[in-house]
Amino acid sequence: ERLRTYVEEIRALVGGRAPGAALRLPLSAPVPIWIAALGPKAVRLAGDIADGVILNWCTPDRVAEARDAIRAAAGEAGREAHAVTIAVYVRASFSGRSDEALVAAAREYASYPAYARQFEAMGVEPSAEAIVKAVCLRGDRDRAKQGLDTYRRAGADLPVVYPVLAPGEGGEAALTVLRTFSS
Prior knowledge:
The protein has helices at residues 2-14, 40-49, 60-76, 96-110, 113-121, 128-135, 141-154, 171-181; strands at residues 34-36, 52-56, 85-92, 158-163. The chain is α/β, with parallel strands linked by helices. It is globular, with a radius of gyration of 18 Å. A four-stranded parallel sheet has the order 1-2-3-4, covered by helices on one side. It has eight helices and four strands, in the order H-E-H-E-H-E-H-H-H-H-E-H. Helix 2 (40-49) crosses helix 3 and helix 3 runs parallel beside helix 7 (141-154). The longest helix is centred in the middle third of the chain and has 17 residues, at 60-76.
């Protein structure tokens, strides 16, 4: 309910309707409000009131479940089922050193209770290696593109590829990720 209140307050502020505190910028269109949603309540709230939702550390199946919940909530709120843009962060690595960094990142996220619950709900073993295998893009170009297409078919309107690089990896490693998805 606090998140709903914040969204309403922000909409009023940027829409010029907040008493005594309206933002005084000329806007050509309403500012879209996006919600980062992890749990089922936040996902449904996004369908109810948001313009977009950002999902994180999700399997394609979780994206499909979120899509269905968002569309149902949008319909119940009297909105178009496709009113909410669905984005999902999808981490990617294409080198052994980057894979090590990806595993370290997964280990850290798995230590947070909310993410641990999400991994469990998705049926993903709580090891960092299993998490990376389930939710990250790795391997050769064709395999990575197929993985990204799987996220799109699951309902991700905007998959956000998040390259993970190892410390000291730079230019060439980043270019590998860019080249993989640029054609």
